[in-house]
Amino acid sequence: MLKFFAVALLFVLNLSALTLQKAEIYSDQNISGWMMSEKLDGVRAYWDGKKLLSRQGQAINAPDWFTQKLPPFELDGELWTKRGDFENIQSIVMDKTPKPEWSKIKYMIFEAPHAEGNFSKRLEQVQKYIQEQKLIHVAIIEQKICKDKKELDNYFQSVITHGGEGVVIKDGSKAYFEGRSDSVLKVKLAEDMEAKVIGYKNGSGKFTGMMGSLQVELEDGTQFFIGSGLSNAIRANPPKIGEMVSFKYFGFTKNGKPKFASYM
């Protein structure tokens, strides 16, 4: 009986774990001829052909009209409205009860997991389906061919100047793959990471009576506090113990802690 329970538990855990593509950091690699696109600051969403899931494998409670015409094949993308609107997007799409504001959300696609062919062929399949079904809330993130580092730098500066988060560059010749790879790179002013909430520090001054900062832990056990980037709404109703949160940072200290960590 105990052995059966262990196997069943392992099966459940495997179901909740998604192995999606993850980008490495760009550091002057040769990216001539690669595809580049804006890195949207939305909520990542994976469509498995039947359900819309977060990158942690949790169900996203989208309204029926949003998902009923999505394809029978997989999609990977961002739930997005506009630049600089992450907190609002998160409040809409992560609510257990779908809000009317879902009408403002678009599903911006950057990959078709496990589809055949190179990157362009995979996206062509998605575009064909979008046109056939006349889906107005689904679109492919614009992809550009990158000639060289100078063109990448100019594109990156344009994105940042207009309030964007960064750029993703991808070797478009490759078949689909899972996990982290140097065939997908991200270019950002700041890096981002996830950590688990393990505690809180009470606020003071204008934040008296609210949460002052989040105590979090990385996968390797490193613990630290995040006190910036927190809105009053988050301070009044902080993430629960055990929940995963995203934060941006600028490198690491000599003790291995993220520098200038800011809640996302």
Secondary structure layout plus pairing:
Layout: H1 2-16, E1 21-25, E2 35-39, E3 43-47, E4 52-53, H2 64-67, E5 75-80, H3 86-93, E6 106-111, H4 119-133, E7 138-140, E8 144-145, H5 149-161, E9 166-170, E10 179-188, E11 191-202, E12 211-217, E13 223-226, H6 232-236, E14 244-249, E15 262-263
Parallel strand pairs: 1-10, 6-7
Antiparallel strand pairs: 2-8, 2-9, 3-4, 3-5, 5-6, 9-10, 11-12, 11-14, 12-13, 14-15
Q: How would you describe this protein?
A:
It is built from 6 helices and 15 strands. A 5-stranded mixed β-sheet has the order 1-10-9-2-8. Strands 4-3-5-6-7 form a 5-stranded mixed β-sheet. The chain is of the alpha+beta class and about 260 residues long. Mean pLDDT is about 90; it is low at about 1-15. The termini are far apart. The longest helix has 15 residues, at about 1-15. The chain has 2 domains: about 15-190, DNA ligase/mRNA capping enzyme (D-amino Acid Aminotransferase, Chain A, domain 1, 2-Layer Sandwich); about 190-264, OB fold (Dihydrolipoamide Acetyltransferase, E2P), CATH 2.40.50.
Q: What is the helical fraction, as a range of percent?
A: 10-25%
Total domain units: 2
Low-confidence stretches: 1-16
What percent strand? 25-35%
Order of SSEs, N→C? HEEEEHEHEHEEHEEEEEHEE
Brief sketch in words of this structure:
23% of the residues lie in helices and 30% in strands. It is α+β, with helices and mostly antiparallel strands. It has a 5-stranded mixed β-sheet with strand order 1-10-9-2-8.
Features of the shown structure:
264 residues; globular; five-stranded mixed sheet; alpha+beta; disordered N terminus; single chain; D-amino Acid Aminotransferase, Chain A, domain 1; 15 strands; 23% helix; 2 domains; 30% strand
